[in-house]
Amino acid sequence: MEKLIPTLIDGLNLGSVYALVALGYTMVYGIAKMLNFAHGDVIMVGAYTLFVCITTLHLPLWLTFIIAILVCSVLGFIVEKLAYKPLRGSSPLAVLITAIGVSYLLQNLALLFANTKYGMDKQFFSSFLNLGSLKIGNVTISGVDFLIWITTAVIMVGMMLFIKKTKTGRAMLAVSEDKGAAQLMGVNVNKTISITFIIGSALAAIASILFAAKYQFVESTMGSLFGIKAFAAAVFGGIGSIPGAVIGGVIIGIIEAFSTAFLPGSVNAASDGFAFVILIIMLVLKPTGLLGKQTTEKV
Q: Which pTM was predicted?
């Protein structure tokens, strides 16, 4: 019983980071109708950028955070322009294969950089964000924990307001409904999709900052599994739904934390699979996810 609250806190931390990445997935799919499986690797790029800025360049933290967000945003913009824009209108399979190719390209470039610069792939941060802690009974909650939860909640609310209240957000909604009709109404579809990729990549950068602050490591392959879990979170919550992505991410994070903490050692080694088992059950019972909307295809 004494492990219950700490495990829940770990699950909320991990789930909140998944949620931020899932927001990027759900935005790109909801608006551009494509699965960007390279999105998880943007987190890895953001984490490596943090590592270089903090340990090698010794830059101030505020500047490091800005650089990480800018690097990831520019990366998202470039990937969309070079890899995905030429395939707009192509089959979903072509886009999917391209996304997987971009993912492996980013992983191998990061691996080459890390091995050349530092002699090994996996690198560890020192504790660069010390925000103290709060002790409640026998449970200690760190300031980084609170930062992760508050940041995720603020971003979720901010994204919902942005989509509903701003001209760019309404343009995104129009493109998600019908690209052709939106273009006829004067919406710049290419610009809107590029902005979507930039915002999604910026959210991935914020996720990388929170992940590095909490777990203090980076490696070239971390984005791959991270991205798949975040995609599962987006589908679980209802892909295209902003609150659904957050709820899905938190649920999957909690499931993973509890399966790791309470299952026998021989079983919890496969804890990554339990979230996907729950996802499969959800898709069988409710294919649109928790908050997804049923859509009708017109013929």
A: 0.89
